[in-house]
Amino acid sequence: MGNRFDGKVVLITGAGSGLGQASALQLAKEGAKLSLVDVNAASLEETKSKVSEVAPNAEVLLITANVADEKAVENYVNETVEKFGRIDSFFNNAGIEGKQNLTEDFGIDEFQKVVSINLNGVFYGMKYVLKVMKEQGSGSIVNTASVGGIRGVGNQSGYAASKHGVVGLTRNSGIEYGQYGININAIAPGAIMTPMVEGSLKQMDPYDWEEVGKQFVEPNPMKRFGKPEEVGYLVAFLLSDQSSFINAAVIPIDGGQSYKY
């Protein structure tokens, strides 16, 4: 496959764990210069350490920021451009699940927190990165939606609403910016075994969450959880020049569960 990202600058939010970390490792292997953003500084250091193991010569910039803070988002974009001069690809990934509850019992503050990170944070990221890419005349963006953004998810009103918003924002922006040489897509992961999914299972049953997990994936045609690195392969493809004519698409990566009646 070669080094598709030699000389390319890739910005990743939520890079401290899960899908962001897995994608950072894959992109580093393929030669990318990385600007890694996360609210947790210690997690970022962990990702950088893992990157150095798979790509010892990779250039890595770490930025601690809360994506729900518009000014912090503007700053992480500016810091990336100051360091590397451009942004070729953007994995707009940071997000949370939030607490589980029926809609009528879902706390207003909790709903706003989930939406501020999952939807507002994605919008802020696109708002400032698109300005850079439009000036360059090129770029690729992958937003993290979810199967919860294309179908319902019980007891997760905030999460489902925010991810449906990401889907709409992706499709709309892809239509707007294709003319500027920028393609914008979203991934819709299903049950991928990340710290966030583990936390979700523990909300369901803190004492036997692994058994809950087995039951959770039973309806999946592939009868298993996905792996973060499997998502990383997809993200790398969508951010590469090989996907330049894929635009405004939302691509499930869920073992086929979205299509099972």
Automatic annotation (TrEMBL):
It comes from the Bacteria. One of its GO terms (molecular function) is oxidoreductase activity. The keyword Oxidoreductase applies. The keyword Chloroplast does not apply. Pfam families: adh_short_C2. Keywords: Oxidoreductase. InterPro entries: NAD(P)-bd_dom_sf, SDR_fam. GO terms for biological process: bile acid metabolic process. PANTHER family: DEHYDROGENASES, SHORT CHAIN, ESTRADIOL 17-BETA-DEHYDROGENASE 8-RELATED. Belongs to the short-chain dehydrogenases/reductases (SDR) family. This is 3-oxoacyl-[acyl-carrier protein] reductase. It comes from Bacillus thermotolerans (Quasibacillus thermotolerans).
